[in-house]
Amino acid sequence: MMVGYSSGYAGLHFLHFTAQAISTSGPQLTPAWQLHLTKLISNDIALLWGFSIGIFFSIWPNPKAKKVAVKLNWLANIFLKKIFIPLLPLFILGFVFKLEHEHILKTSLSLYGPILILIIATQWLYISSWYLVASQFSLKKFCYYLKNVLPASLTGLSTISSAAAMPVLLLSTEKNLDDPEQARMLVPAIINIHTIGSAIGIPILSLATILTFGLPMPSPSVFIVFALYTALAKYAVAAVPGGVIIVVTPLLEAHLGFSSDMIGLITAIYLICDPFGTTANVTANGVFPILFTKLHKRLTQFFPAAAGESHESTPQFERQGSGQPT
Predict the structure, then answer these.
(1) Parts of the chain with a pLDDT under 50
(2) Where in the cell is it found (predicted)?
(3) 32 located within any domain
(4) Which pLDDT score, from 0 to 100, does residue 206 have?
(5) CATH number for the domain including 271?
(6) Domain-embedded: residue 217
């Protein structure tokens, strides 16, 4: 996320984005009715408790606790997929009407066009650098790895869901690793939490939104705290369209001082960028298993006793006889 912060900080100043703040002093729409729910516990405390309890029960497993966690996870996914996600486009449509009524929409779209280009460029420069590292700076291997992951990337672009792209990504990763077992172990484990596209896109969009509303830029220390909480929150993300911004919204309010108008704007712009962010997520998920297996091989050279119990098959570029992604 600090890559996104650095790129956003430098890129927004290069684009002279600070001189184009949007005025919100025009006629404003107000809700016809409001539903106020009492907050039982703050988001920060709930996040830290959930993370700590998860670590505790992973070390000292308890069947009853696992059963409760699975049930709560099922209920949360049902709420997201059956209620919240279907209603999200209605919220976005209403907020677009609000922006148009307040004469903000046209200005926002004209301002955020260059921001989208900045986000995509940063995402692909960052991901390409890791593919170069994984290929040991061999252009032939670099193209080979990307060619194998391309079907999964296109699936992510069309479905806007990392979870929907996972079966195709599994096939691509199996070919890059020549080891189906490791691919099946690594890819499902990172599909929700290893979201490079969002980790770069959200910082840039948040800085752009802050400048859009004429607020001062957050200091690196403030943003580091926000980034740490966001990294923890990634463990609660569902790999569905807009899943990341849903989880990050309370953190934007708590740590970066976002108002409801700012939340609505960044949500609307994020959903426009989401297909490209999902493509970056899936592509980055394709390089992580390659880097992990190479690192594991290097570590087992230093710890041969552990290597004797490992059945790892390291990725071999020369073996190209495995099946093609379908």
Answers:
(1) 19, 21, 310-326
(2) Membrane
(3) no
(4) 93
(5) 1.10.3860.10
(6) yes
Q: Is residue 28 part of a domain?
A: no
Query: What pLDDT is recorded for position 22?
Result: 55
Instruction: Specify the pLDDT at position 223.
Output: 93
Q: Quote the Cα angle for 132-237-93, to 5°.
A: 105
Phi, psi of 300 (to 5 degrees): -70, -20
Phi, psi at 135, each rounded to 5°: -85, 5
3-state secondary structure the chain: CHHHHHHHHHHHHHCCHHHCCCCCCCCCCCCCCCCCCCCCCCHHHHHHHHHHHHHHHHHCCCHHHHHHHHHHHHHHHHHHHHHHHHHHHHHHHHHHHHHHHCCCHHHHHHHHHHHHHHHHHHHHHHHHHHHHHHCCCCHHHHHHHHHHHHHHHHHHHHHCCHHHHHHHHHHHHHHHHCCHHHHHHHHHHHCCCCCHHHHHHHHHHHHHHHHHCCCCCCCHHHHHHHHHHHHHHHHHCCCCCCHHHHHHHHHHHHHHCCCHHHHHHHHHHHHHHHHHHHHHHHHHHHHHHHHHHHHHHHHHHHCHHHHCCCCCCCCCCCCCCCCCCC
C-alpha 162/C-alpha 153 separation (Å) is 9
What would the two tokens of residue 236 be? 């609660």
User: How high is the pLDDT of residue 36?
Assistant: 77
Structure confidence at residue 24 (pLDDT): 54
Contact at 8 Å (CB) between 84 and 246? yes
pTM: 0.71
Distance (Å, whole) CA 191 – CA 178: 20
Burial class (CB within 10 angstroms; exposed 0-12, middle 13-18, buried 19+) of 140: exposed
**Residue of 281, 199, 278 lying closest to 233 (CA atoms):** 199
Backbone angles phi, psi at 314, to 5 degrees: -75, 155
* Domain contains 319: no
Amino acid residing at 176: N
What does each C-alpha distance from 33 to 28, 162, 195, 226 come to in angstroms? 15, 36, 36, 32
Quick check: 230 and 248 in contact, CB under 8 A? yes
| Tally of structural domains, the chain | 1
Nearest alpha-carbon partner for 313 in 187, 189, 178, 173: 178
